[in-house]
Structure formats: structure tokens, C-alpha cells
Amino acid sequence: MKIAVVLGTRPEIIKMAPVIDEIRRRGLEFTLIHTGQHYDHEMSDQFFIDLELPSPHHNIGAGSGSHGEMTAEMLRGIEEVLAEEEPDIVMVQGDTNAVLAGALAAVKLHIPVGHVEAGLRSFDRTMPEEINRMVADACSKLYYVPTEESGINLLMEGADPDNVFITGNTVVDACLRNIEIASRSLEVLSGFQDDEKLVVLTLHRAENVDNPERLRSIIEAVLELREFRIVFPVHPRTRKNLEEQGLYRKLMEADHVSIHKPMGYLDFLLLLSNSFMILTDSGGLQEEAITFNVPCLTLRYNTERPETVDAGGNILVGADRDRIISTARKILEDPEFRDRMMEADNPYGDGHASERILDETIRLYREGRLGMEP
Ligand code: UD1
Ligand code: UDP
Fold first, then answer.
1. Which of 174, 84, 196, 90 is nearest to 136 (CA)?
2. What kind of architecture, by CATH, is found in domain 2-169+350-366?
């Protein structure tokens, strides 16, 4: 069996790494296709180094540009590679443009698609990621869903229950495998005092950073929360917008804010696992926060990870300055409230998602059920 893995952005590299490790552990033939959507060293190559991944066999080089331009370039490039490589299955992960292009290119060539982290829904069609998830799921044959809830979303949309597998999320595999390695170098923590309350902030979602009012409101809250040490590795998209709005300088001047380039995975994992609280609009961070029992305030009004909110580890505070400030202060001033958030059960599994993904895929292949039917 030959597997093609398509990835293109930071979170896909991180969450596909355990799957690629498992493919290699089992000695299966595979080809790795990088769409090039993320291309800066610290958004892409650094993760191949940290996670000891093989270099991609193909790089489509479709970074930046509008959604249409980027997706078109990826579609053309992936189609060409798949026609040449003739894999038995194409695996995609998550909800980026790479997933959309990978799934669409494959299904048109009658190659079955396996979607890792299938079935997530924010029910907000203004998000580019929601469209990508829905299209990718419509093109997929195998659904590796992280939770029962995401499986139900797919069944409601008519997916064949025989092809929906609750595997857990590979983010837990990545966290558990790498936290020990990350803990071998404590350098990233050395710049902070023991009594500082570390807060990791990440921000890149289009609806926040491309909207000047929302971006300003979030940054005003950050500037106000002086009782914390706020560590902010800035996504390239966000940096550009902060500079344009004159906000980057204000953050640089704030004594309690530490601005960084995007961090490598190992440093970032260590930092987040040692944090008092997370402020983020990232999808992956909502999952990692609950994995490490760190309270999470999500800077959005909805989430495709409602399990984290239901479990009690995540609160949606939106981009509302006052709500961000008051909720962060409540976590600081009310230890029982924080304890309850930290006790939330992790809904994303036991760290063996990638094994289950490969088990189910191989089983279907052996049973002759991977092929496309009319
Ligand atoms: C993309 C995904 C988003 C995911 C995020 C992970 C889509 C629609 N969006 O958003 O779902 O959460 O990745 O981080 O697929 N840039 C650089 N260097 C890079 C990468 C990006 O400078 O290595 C800059 C460019 O100006 C680029 C902009 O960031 O135009 C946005 O990048 P893009 O890949 O379009 O979207 P992200 O915001 O990264
Ligand atoms: N991450 C990282 N360094 C950083 C910021 C994030 O390694 O400076 C990791 C983080 O641990 C998580 C992933 O990047 O696994 C999340 O990526 P991002 O927030 O860009 O995308 P999303 O999950 O929202 O799609």
C-alpha cells in the first residue's frame, strides 16, 4: 500500500508528524507532498527538524496569494504529483487550503481520501476553515474523527458510519511524545522569574487580525493585563497587521509583554505546558491547553472544538476587551475557579490516535474496501 500525505502549514506538520512516524514504523511506502503554504523557516522547516521528519518528496511552492490563487496552484501541483505517484490513498489533515486542494485533487483522480481530524464544525461559514472542512469531508472516503461529537456531525451530513473512526486527535500523540524531549532544554524558560504568571498569547485567525477593531480591542486587553508576563510569538500575518495599525510598537514598549518570532515546537510546548493561562484564537492551542491542563481563553465567539468548553477547560471570550480582562483576572484571583478549569478531562484521547488511523486504513485496504465506488 502506498500512502500520499499532503500538508502545507505549521499545524498540519505538527499533527501529521505522528501519522508519518507510524507509517515509517510500519515500513509502508509513502510520499510526502508539501504545498508550500507556510514557507518561512520558523513556520515550516523548523518543525521538520524538531519532529525529525523526512524532507518532503514534493514541494508545490504555493505560499501566500489570495485563497483562489493559492488553492488553484496547489490543485494543479498536487494533481500532477498524484498522477505520477499513483498512491492508494491520500491523507490530509485539518482545515487549511492544503486540505481543500489535496482532497479535491485526489477525489477527481478517483484516489480515496482519508481526512485526519474530520468532522469538526464551527457552523460559521464566514470562516475559510469551515468551508475547507466541509469540502474536504465531502471529498473523503475515510474519516478519522477526534471525538464522538465530530463523528455525529458527519453522520448528520450523511457520512457512511462504516467509514467513520473515532481515533482521538493526533495532537495528543504529538504533545505526549515531545514534551519529554522538550524538557531536556529549559532555555526557553530561563528568561522568566519564578513568581511571574506566564501567559502564552497567539493570534492569527483572519476574523481577528484582518479586522482592525477586533485586533485593537484584543491588544488593548493585553496591554492592560500587567499582572501577567505575556509571551507572544507573533505569526507573520499578525505582525504585518499589527505594524500597519501602529500596535506592534506599543506591544514592544510594554514591560510585561515579551514579543517573539514564531517559536519552534519543542520550545513552544515547554512554554505552554508551564503557563498559567493561554490566550489564543488557534485551533491547535485549544486542544494542547486541555492536554496540559492549562486554562484557555479563546479569543473567538465560536469554536469547532466545543468539547473543550463543555469539559470546562476553555472559555470563549471573543475579541471583547473588557471580557478578556475580567475573565483573565477571575482566573488569577479565584484559585478554585482556575482549579476547576485545570481539572477538565481531555476529550482528545490517549495519544494513540495515529496507531488507530493506520490500523483502520490498513484493515480497509486488506478488505478491498478502499476503492472508489460509483
Ligand atoms: C493558515 C490557515 C489557517 C491555519 C493557519 C496556521 C487557511 C485558509 N488558513 O492561515 O487555517 O490556522 O495557517 O498557522 O488555510 N506568511 C508569511 N510566511 C509564512 C506563512 C505566511 O509571511 O511562512 C504571511 C503571508 O503574508 C501570507 C499570510 O501570512 O499571505 C497569511 O498566510 P496564509 O497561509 O494565507 O494564512 P494563515 O493566516 O497562515
Ligand atoms: N506553535 C508553535 N510555535 C508557535 C506557535 C504555535 O510551535 O510559536 C504550534 C502549537 O503548539 C500548535 C500549532 O503550532 O501545535 C498551532 O498552529 P496555529 O495556531 O498556527 O494553527 P491552528 O491550530 O489554529 O490551525
1. 90
2. 3-Layer(aba) Sandwich (3.40)
